[in-house]
């Protein structure tokens, strides 16, 4: 029997070493625990902070009409769905929301998913497999990358917004089915895909286009209908994905597309088939959310004003904002440790802005991801700008 404990492999030591290495490279992640509703001002550990972290772009996450709709929906439909959609969990609330989302996004049909991650996984794996080809922007959301790998289709990635490279890839492909994947608004850069040119390539080379509009739905276009409305574009080859926990303020996701696409997902979308349906009272509340989005032009106008103001406030900083006209305003610092330091310095001043580091963003591009909401006030943005300038002066 061995008595030397050093000669025996200790369970989990390799995991501990990996975690230590992440901490040493300023890549360790921590969670904050909110003690208040999502809002421009949140409470963490008993202290109030001015927050620029959430994707609650329209300030609906704590809207009184949505809270009332949740209570009404729970009274009518109960709490849990109790089963998957294809067994016994597809509620009238789900059905009404799917019809409303199809109408709102101007597609023939829509299908609810529990999350955007599951929606992307469901679509990509249902429509592609071995022998097919997928083409993806290098800055796409992780869920699109993971979905492509799960599909076992051949994956080709092109440089961010590098449509000339994409065209060469499409032209060289002999695959029977081609699928192009792209964020509509890139979640860490805030820039918008040149959709007319992207769609033109898909039409020229007979490819489907999956457009993940998680950060455009509710924010862009007429009545907040999203990136397609922003460009005044429609096409039967577009598979449109929107999320319902960001600008819509609640939870979930949906796919809007032609009828045969939706039927394929019902028949073959594993992340749709093999999971319990979302609580129906959330769908009931989202019907109210769609009303608020459609009638909330003033919220989008205010977001545009706040975005312009933030750019002015950051002009003198050594860290530059990436070019973005959306509520996502990335302030790039490069080094992981520097992003963490500035984030912590802001926190000491009562302001929360999350430091984003690899692998969420490319190496050497660590940043503060400043996220604006129509619930913010001008004074909030001015306060953030002043704090950043003070931190810059202190470090110099």
UniProtKB/TrEMBL annotation:
Residues 49-382 form the Aminotransferase class I/classII large domain. Keywords: Biotin biosynthesis, Pyridoxal phosphate, Transferase. Its cofactor is pyridoxal 5'-phosphate. One of its GO terms (molecular function) is pyridoxal phosphate binding. PANTHER family: 8-AMINO-7-OXONONANOATE SYNTHASE, CLASS II AMINOTRANSFERASE/8-AMINO-7-OXONONANOATE SYNTHASE. Substrate binds at residues 29, 141, 360. InterPro entries: Aminotransferase_I/II_large, AON_synthase_class-II, AONS_Archaea/Proteobacteria, AONS_Proteobacteria, PyrdxlP-dep_Trfase, PyrdxlP-dep_Trfase_major, PyrdxlP-dep_Trfase_small. The modification N6-(pyridoxal phosphate)lysine is found at residue 246. Coiled coil: none annotated. Catalyzes the decarboxylative condensation of pimeloyl-[acyl-carrier protein] and L-alanine to produce 8-amino-7-oxononanoate (AON), [acyl-carrier protein], and carbon dioxide. It catalyses: 6-carboxyhexanoyl-[ACP] + L-alanine + H(+) = (8S)-8-amino-7-oxononanoate + holo-[ACP] + CO2. It is an enzyme of class 2 (transferase). Homodimer. Pathway: Cofactor biosynthesis; biotin biosynthesis. CDD domains: KBL_like. Belongs to the class-II pyridoxal-phosphate-dependent aminotransferase family. BioF subfamily. It comes from the Bacteria. Pyridoxal 5'-phosphate binds at residues 116-117, 187, 215, 243. GO terms for biological process: biotin biosynthetic process. Its EC number is 2.3.1.47. Pfam families: Aminotran_1_2. This is 8-amino-7-oxononanoate synthase.
